[in-house]
Amino acid sequence: MASLRPNRVKQKMSNGDVAVGVMGPVMTADLIDVLGPMGFDAVWLEGEHGPVDFGDIPDLTRAADLWGMTSIVRVNENRYGPIYRTLDLGSQGVCVPHVDTRDQAQAVADAAKFAPLGKRGIATSRQGYGVPHFFEAANAESLAIILIEDIVAVENLDEILEVEGVDLFYVAPGDLGQSLGHLDRTHPEVLATVERAIATIVAAGRPAGTLVTTESVSHYTDLGVRFVTTGYTPWLERGVKDFHRAMAHGR
User: Which listed CATH number (3.50.30.50, 3.40.50.720, 3.20.20.60, 3.20.20.140) goes with 8-250?
Assistant: First the structure.
């Protein structure tokens, strides 16, 4: 009899470890196969700022399944139908942007979890074919993520953190900085606000996530962050620059 695929990110976080996700402007099934053996725990599929749509989700998540990576789709709005449809099509996680209030966080939990935790529409989903007690298992293994990316969300964070059914509170520096009047996410006020939000999440005993680079990852994990994402494009750019330098040196 089939069993529901374990959610690697949730497993690592529950064990007190740090889970690592990879993201980028383009993510195809073939690219996921390239990234698969590199040790990432999750792959971030971009449906807010990128081209991922509902027809893409089944094959992209199948590729992630082959490598045991947790598939996470960022949707473009906090709506009931698109959230549970994303999970029905095979994603192990759904990430919802601009969640600023307790009610908005509750809406995410309601859409992502079956009763009694939520109100997710009843369907077995691609991940659940042949799985006994699927609804209970799905509540345990699905990953509901909300993005804290507006200063109003930071101000409302204590109430937002009270919502059960949200599995991860991800502090996103880009739009958070914009809401503070800074387009540079490395501005000192932005960095301080990100750290304040993370400290609030960690103090409440809830899992925190954020975006990191090679240079900043140890700083944020020391603050208690248990899920980090990083983009592959900086590594690609760095490798290309190193190659060109090596070519020039050899002439």
Answer: 3.20.20.60
Residue 90 zone, left/alpha/beta (φ > 0; ψ -120 to 50; rest): left
Instruction: Please confirm, yes or no, whether 49 is among the known catalytic residues.
Output: yes
Is the backbone of residue 193 left (phi > 0), alpha (psi -120 to 50) or beta? alpha
Domain range annotation of the chain: 8-250
Q: Would the CA dihedral through 223, 224, 229, 233 be positive or negative?
A: positive
Amino acid identity at 59: D
Alpha helices in the chain (DSSP H): 8-14, 29-35, 57-66, 80-88, 102-112, 134-141, 151-155, 157-160, 173-179, 188-203, 217-222, 233-250
What are the backbone dihedrals phi and psi of residue 122, each rounded to the nearest 5 degrees, phi first?
-75, 115
Active-site residue (options: 49, 133, 219, 244)? 49
Each residue's pLDDT tens digit, 133-182: 999 999 999 999 999 999 999 999 999 999 999 999 999 999 999 999 99
